[in-house]
Amino acid sequence: MKAYKGFKKLEDGTLWCRDFQYEVGKTYKFEGEPVICEQGFHACHEPHQCWVHYPNNGENVYYEVECGGKIVESDEGDGKFVCTEITLVREIPTPENKFDWCSLFQDDRAIVKLNSKYNYMNIEGKYLFEQWWDSCLYFHDGYAMVKLNGKWNYINSEGKYLSLLWFDDCWEFHNGYARVCLNDKWNYISTEGKCLSEQWFDYCRDFNEGYGIVKLNDKWNYINTEGKLLSEQWWDYCWNFKDGYAIVRLNGENYKIDKTGKITQL
């Protein structure tokens, strides 16, 4: 089976992986049971999957290999497997750009680190953006969270910022809205970059079935995608909607509320 493998190349030109030396053209066999990350010969199905384990930091190189014998696939979604027979075929080109660390790929994008800064890279090994950040997270619903100078924002696939505001904290999008925190107050931001409510709350919870849950002055309520509260009543606690209904608590009693705001006692 054709596959790919990364190696550390020493100054004398020798190739090493897990304290084992390899040579091009030689076939190696492992007498035993292959176990992921423990024993056997490891390789990946695609070249870019090797970068997670052997970043392109100037010390590592990459080879096409032929794998056989008993093969066990990783269950981590990283394209790695372990086998009992391997032959080094030829060296393949290194990525265009260097990096000290590489995350797993999602949607053909990975997060990379270089000199303590972060960016995104495609499977061809090219940086996606000119800007580097202090931290980056995976894309989710078309947007990724990035951190710069202690503040957070969102970028789209073109690297454009979603908001003019930079936040103290932010979360992934759910049902088209994400929670954001600024100066210890919370709100929601839409995929258009607009804050949902003029009111900033003491805390927010993610949207679920068209409603978010907000906290103000130790009381809870629901807010819809138009920024309107579901009820004039504020509750001691609110639970998420499920199948059109939610449970709310007031003065030790639990009630059921629907999406019109109608309340019935349990």
Write structural notes for this entry.
This protein is 0% helix and 48% strand. The model has no long low-confidence stretch (mean pLDDT 96). It folds into three domains: 2-92, ADP-ribosylation fold, CATH 3.20.170; 133-200, Beta Barrel (Thrombin, subunit H); 201-266, Thrombin, subunit H. The protein is built from no helices and 23 strands. It starts with a strand and ends with a strand. Strands 1, 2, 3, 4, 5, 6 and 7 form a seven-stranded antiparallel beta sheet that branches. Strands 20-21-22-23 form a four-stranded antiparallel beta sheet, with no helix packed on it. A three-stranded antiparallel beta sheet has the order 8-9-10, with no helix packed on it. With 266 residues, it is mostly beta strands. The protein has strands at 2-9, 15-17, 20-22, 27-29, 41-44, 60-73, 80-92, 101-102, 109-114, 117-122, 135-136, 144-148, 151-155, 169-174, 177-182, 185-190, 203-208, 211-216, 219-224, 237-238, 245-250, 253-258, 263-265.
Descriptors for this entry?
single chain, 266 residues, mainly beta, ADP-ribosylation fold, Thrombin, subunit H, 4-stranded antiparallel β-sheet
